[in-house]
């Protein structure tokens, strides 16, 4: 690594409870269930939410790819531990964001991919492969585990849209909604299980029975990130008011084997990935098409250049800010955020001769987006 610069000592987000069962069609199920109460109608995120019916109950799913839905495993197999679940023929889906009273979609589920040995703290996620494209997804990609962790550390507010009950589960007059409702909740820094993220409820707004498997999403830059399906919850406004209000969801992107199987079965492309590598830059990959160059340098003025047909052209310039975390020898943080295009493109950061840099310097790298 060049003596004039080093990696910024900061984390950069680059763009960068109990199990909940499906809502019953007849008899009530036991145990806490997810809950959408006091939500809002007309959310533009409703286009990512799909109503899902089984032969005995209701759930929600998220449209990740034109031919792939993601829902909770317990919507497919409520008993878990290897018990037989529903078959693809026993599932009915509706157009994304639609009113269920208009009838189901002609598109059918052709394959179900999940871990039949899921538990309430592990693998509560299922991928539904469709026999035809259902719609064009508004979700850009899945959030990486690091992105989910960064969002949780910041207490970020994320959104959910589903078709569950609009009143407490104990209220016999409560019914599942025919239209999708949206609710926003702050993420919690607490988590009891790996591969799971938690949300703190306010006791007034939340999801309910029938919302299991619905999508949690957040907009980051130009991306709409899919974090994972709703798995569990407790406390008001849906459950026992004496309990703490919270929800749990599976982190979708960590289930790499299930994802690979679903993509192969559906013939869909993987989410985009941006990877940067250079003589002085170890290969570094992030989800999405955007990558951020972030290094501490001994000088503050820099330009970003891109090679096109053998010619280097300036595309951006910056003046670095002095950052205590960078230390005394390389005190200036130099940042360039690059929105990459499919394929490999060469870039270089150029620092001319200036105070702190007697001879000038360049930092070459290739950004590959797949």
Automatic annotation (TrEMBL):
Signal peptide: none
Molecular function per GO: serine-type endopeptidase activity
GO biological process: proteolysis
Sequence similarity: Belongs to the peptidase S1 family.
Name of the protein this chain belongs to: Unannotated protein
Keywords, sorted A to Z: Disulfide bond
Source organism of this protein record: freshwater metagenome
Coiled-coil residues: none
Listed SMART domains: Tryp_SPc (SM00020)
Domain Peptidase S1: 14-264
